[in-house]
Amino acid sequence: MDIHQLKIFISVFKNKSFSKAAKELFLTQPTISEHIKTLEEELDCKLFDRFGKVIIPTTEAEILYENAQGVVEKVENLKEVLQKIKSTPSGNLYIAASSIPGTYILPKLMSSFKNIYPQISIQIDISDSKSVIESLLSGQILLGIVGTKLRKSKIDYFPFMDDELVIVSPNLIKESFIEPEEILKYPFITREEGSGTRKEMEKWLGEMGIDIEKLNIVCTLSSTDAVKEAIKNGLGISILSIHSIKDELEYKKLKIVKIKNYKMNRIFYIATHTTRSLPYIYKLFYEFLKENAFSL
């Protein structure tokens, strides 16, 4: 049964007439009769006894009427609630992001989004790209921002923001450009397994012919901020996102070094599950991100 059938049934029940119900609902009498017949077949019971032009509701009809009214009212109220959400969007957005977009990109965009939709609050869980994708696959979240594509068939990736990975040094390297193999001469600080930055770094070093196993890794840290602090304290060099060191570069607290003839570019992605539907306020945020893609 569907809501339309229930509305027809309620009208017939109240009017005790197929013809009056037809007039009330602007339908033909045969259409009314056909819907009631279909409903009776589906419920496997008689709803109305017919005595010429007079119809008498059965006991089953009395029970159905008591419950059908509440169902129809709830559906109508639900429509009003959904329309209200669309006219004045409100609610809580819970998304996940890998460390670079979650820490250095999304906060700037959230301010603009809140100016447009002040009644929507946003919570961001910051982890690594692998964890974000796993949360999408398990259904814990509906939308994520990641720094690398993981080969998962049920994930859609939409290009969101450009990024460049650069060597970050305290004062260990004096030159602005070095040959790829020179990286092996310096103590190296790396991000944890699952980090998008680490995955992209390993990909680029591999393309340059650098054996990852030969890196002089002195420390593995689980956040970009921790890596930056370790670099500032002279522990070694690292490869980080240009987005993550803008303040340090402005105040000359860190130095970037580039590799001759190579540019380590990557893209951040908006990630969603291929089979999950986004609720209305999530769609608003998704479209806002798409509209502002590559703007920073």
UniProtKB/TrEMBL annotation:
Any one Pfam family here would be: LysR_substrate
InterPro entries, sorted: LysR-like_Sec_metab, LysR_HTH_N, LysR_subst-bd, WH-like_DNA-bd_sf, WH_DNA-bd_sf
- Residue stretches making up the HTH lysR-type domain: 1-58
Q: Which organism is it from?
A: Thermodesulfovibrio yellowstonii
Q: Which family does it belong to?
A: Belongs to the LysR transcriptional regulatory family.
**Does the record's keyword annotation contain Ribonucleoprotein?**
no
What PANTHER family does the database record attribute to this sequence?
Answer: HTH-TYPE TRANSCRIPTIONAL REGULATOR (PTHR30126), HTH-TYPE TRANSCRIPTIONAL REGULATOR CITR (PTHR30126:SF64)
Protein name (database record) = LysR family transcriptional regulator
Q: Which CDD domains match?
A: PBP2_CysL_like
MF-aspect GO terms:
DNA-binding transcription factor activity; transcription cis-regulatory region binding
Say if the entry is tagged with keyword Transcription regulation: yes
* Alphabetized NCBIfam families for the sequence: LysR_Sec_metab
Entry keywords, A to Z: DNA-binding, Transcription, Transcription regulation
